[in-house]
Write a structure and sequence with these properties.
The chain has a single domain, classed as 2-Layer Sandwich (Conserved Hypothetical Protein Mth637, Chain: A), CATH 3.30.1200.10. The chain has a five-stranded mixed sheet with strand order 2-3-1-5-4, covered by helices on one side. It is an alpha+beta fold. It is globular. Strand 2 and strand 3 form a beta hairpin. The protein has one helix and five strands; from the N terminus they run βββαββ.
């Protein structure tokens, strides 16, 4: 089990996920924050980055904000 704090920047040129020096993560998401599309893209991006299926990645808090807590269930 892992929990990450991710700051999301929607409408980015490309989808990226990078770790910042303070231990948090920053994600650039191409999708706009409309109808949950940015959250769906974030889940897919995190799953791809950590080589996990999307079904194991969930947004625990911050679904409507820019700072999110993302949980990866690795069991």
């Amino acid at each position: 089990m892992a929990i990450f704090q991710i700051k999301v920047k929607p409408n980015a040129r490309e989808s990226t996920l990078a770790r910042l020096p303070d231990g948090t993560w920053q994600a650039g998401i191409r999708s706009a924050p409309i109808a949950g599309r940015a959250n769906e893209e974030l889940v897919a991006l995190v799953a791809r980055h950590f080589a996990q299926p999307k079904s194991r990645v969930t947004i625990k808090s911050g679904a409507t904000g820019r700072i999110k807590l993302v949980h990866i269930d690795d069991t």
